[in-house]
Amino acid sequence: MPDDFLIHSDFSLRQLNTFGIDAKAHRYVSIDSVNTLLKVVKTTEFAQSERFVLGGGSNILLTDDFPGLVLHIGIKQIGLIGDDEDTTFVRAAAGENWHQFVQWTLAHDLSGLENLSLIPGSVGAAPIQNIGAYGAEVKDFLHSVTVFDLLSGDIRTLSNAECGFGYRDSIFKRELKGRAVILDVTFALPKRWQPNLHYVELAQEMKARGLNMPTAREVSDAVIAIRTRKLPDPAIIGNAGSFFKNPIVSAVKREQLLAQFPQLVSHRQADGSYKLAAGWLIDQCGWKGKSMGAAGVYERQALVLVNRGGASGKEIVDLACAIQKSVLARFDVLLEAEPIIL
Prior knowledge:
The protein has nine helices and 20 strands. It is an alpha+beta fold. The strands form six sheets. Strands 6-7-12-10-11 form a five-stranded antiparallel beta sheet, with no helix packed on it. Helix 5 (200-208) crosses helix 6 (216-230). The chain is globular. The two termini are 31 Å apart.
C-alpha cells in the first residue's frame, strides 16, 4: 500500500461531482488506502480544518468553495470472504464504483444486487443513503460496514442493525454524520435467489421482453435499459439522479389528496403510511422540462434536476426551492432534497 500522499491547495472539484459544479476545496487529499488515511489524520491540516468525506460525488450539490479539507475516498478491492448454506459473503472497498461492483457480482454468478444496477456513486456511499431502486434497497443485502472513527481514531465494524437504516437514511446521516469514514462494506448475497419484480415498471419491462423467470443478469439488463431511457448520463448532462425523496404521508392525508387528485400515485408502506411519487407531484405542477437560468428539470423525469451548462450550485438550489414551494402550495406536501447541499 502506498505510504506517500499529497495535500493539494485550492483543488478543483468540478470533475469529482456529477452535477459538474465548478467549486474548489481549500485543501484536498486522495485516500487510496487505509494506511494513507491513518497518516492523513495525524497531519496539521487535518487537525485544524473543517472536513468533508467525498465518495463518487453523485449525491452532493456544491454551492460554494469548501473552506476545509476534502478527504476523497478511493480505496479499491473486491473479494469473496466466505459463505454458508444460504449465503455468499462479498466485501468491497469504499472507493469501488457501485455499478461496476454490481456487475462484478453478476459476473461471478452472485445474485441480489441486480435491481440496484446503474446507480451512480461509490460502494462507500451506498449505506449512507441506503440507496434503493426498483423494489430493492442496499439494506436488504448489507451484512456489515467497516468504519474509521475520526474522533476516536478507532476502526470498528457495524452490523446491519447498528446502521439504523430507514428510507434514504442511516446512522451515517445522523449520529455518525461527519464522524465515520466508511472503509468497506460486506454484503450477504442469497444462494436461493428469486427475481424481485414487485416494482410495476420493472415487471412491465420483463413482460415486454417475454421473460417470465428472468436471470439476475436479465433483471440487471432491464433495469439498465429503464434507467437509461429515463435518466440523463452525468457524463453528458450534470445531475445527481433523483433530487427529491418520495414523501411519506399518513393514510388520512393520502385519502384527502385522492379526493382532490384521483390520479395521485401512491404506494402503501408496511406501517400503513403511503409513499407518494415526488416526480408525479412535480410534473403536475408543470416543472418537467422547465429551466431557471442554466438549472433545469429533466425532460424525461421531473424528479431529476440538471445542470444545462455552467449552472452554479445556488441556481440549482433556487430551482429546487421554487419546486418545493409550488408542490407545497398545490398538494400541501413538503419535498425533501436527497443530495447533501454543501
